[in-house]
Design a protein that fits this description.
Length: 378
């Protein structure tokens, strides 16, 4: 079933649909040469043009499941061809309003300059068809007016895209800050535990060892009762010393970082990508450097997918296998060969190898780009 699940701003989409409906109504029923009065071949062609434009517009405003860039361009091309078809069948200035709607979508797939150039050429073509059939000296004013209207729509779209990118960047930085705060807290806790462990060992451990030596010396003194008491005291002291050492050993254990909680802020703000993070709820990392490497690896995987792939879906699986933490990631985009190792992947490889881990990546059969990363769990 087809679901309307807009990826552009909803109210602007509804305005576009309303504009199409109004122009379609005027063209079909009201205009001087209404579609209902045309011969059926022309009426059919014009109707296909109307349906083609709204189909392309609705397809453009939907979230795509794969090859987003290519489908966006196809949707825009369908709208352009539909406008041209309607203008060839029946010249109407109303068609130039469709150009304004079409032009406002162009900045999503190309630069502002190219959008303005494509709009200008389209208007020249459509108005040229009008002049070819009905010569009119006011064509230059009509061209200037609709070009300015279209330029206004293009500039609004450019500013909206820049604002959206700024919001995405801010959300990404905020999520990265939250994850970094968790790493800093884990590092601070680690250093504090190590400091307490050292102090405890240096003070109490020293005193208890001295006490054990004194009791050992006293055991050589006379008296059977004294010997029994000293033996018991020495035994208890050794037990106490063992307990202290066990406590120190426990305190030296590195703090645990919950992997899901560490990565959740990062994946929650990823734009234009359906991201599935598959991590065991209680998967813990007991080393702060390993946790940081997992965080940076996840960020690099997401960044690569957004920058270098037209993927719409990305799956990241993190699990523990025996003594290793495994990260498997795969998207549904197109892989460009040969695959070059950029600064991001090169930096990630250095991080992984510094922890005696391994990193592999490449193109998966019948799928997109994959990354496999293995790190020692401790």
């Amino acid at each position: 079933m087809f679901k309307f699940q807009w990826k552009r701003t909803d109210h602007l989409v509804f305005v576009g649909i309303g504009t199409w409906l109004l122009i379609a109504y005027l063209s079909v029923f009201v205009d001087r040469r209404a579609v209902i009065d045309m011969p059926w071949p022309q009426a059919l062609g014009y109707s296909l043009g109307l349906l083609g434009f709204i189909t392309g517009f609705l397809r453009y405003t939907q979230p795509f499941t794969f090859n987003e860039g290519q489908l966006e361009r196809f949707a825009l091309a369908l709208q352009w061809v539909s406008i041209l078809l309607m203008q060839l069948i029946e010249v109407r200035s109303l068609h130039l309003i469709y150009v304004i709607i079409w032009a406002s979508q162009l900045p999503h797939v190309t630069s502002m300059v190219r959008s303005l150039l494509a709009t200008a050429l389209t208007l020249v073509l459509l108005i040229g068809i009008d002049q070819w059939q009905h010569s009119d000296q006011s064509w230059i004013w009509e061209l200037a007016m609709y070009f300015l209207f279209s330029s206004f729509g293009i500039l609004l779209s450019v500013h909206a895209l820049e604002a959206e990118k700024a919001r995405d960047k801010l959300a990404e930085k905020n999520a990265e800050l939250q994850a970094t705060q968790q790493l800093l807290a884990a590092n601070a806790k680690e250093h504090e535990r190590l400091r307490i462990a050292r102090d405890l060992h240096d003070s109490m451990g020293h005193h208890l060892t001295s006490l054990a030596l004194q009791l050992e010396l006293a055991s050589h003194q006379q008296g059977e009762a004294l010997q029994n008491t000293i033996q018991k005291s020495r035994h208890l002291t050794k037990l106490l010393l063992a307990d202290v050492r066990a406590t120190v050993s426990d305190m030296r254990a590195l703090p645990s970082v919950n992997i899901r909680e560490l990565l959740q802020p990062i994946v929650a703000v990823v734009p234009r990508l359906k991201l599935k993070l598959d991590v065991e709820r209680e998967l813990l990392c007991h080393d702060a450097k390993t946790a940081e490497t997992i965080l940076r690896a996840t960020q690099e995987i997401i960044t690569n997918c957004l920058k270098h792939s037209d993927a719409s879906e990305l799956t990241i699986n993190i699990r523990q296998e025996q003594e290793n933490l495994i990260i498997d990631a795969i998207d549904n985009g197109q892989v460009q060969h040969p695959i070059a190792e950029g600064y991001g992947l090169k930096g990630l490889r250095e991080r992984v190898e510094a922890l005696s881990g391994t990193l592999r990546y490449g193109s998966a059969e019948n799928q997109g780009f994959f990354v496999h990363l293995s790190l020692p769990a401790s």
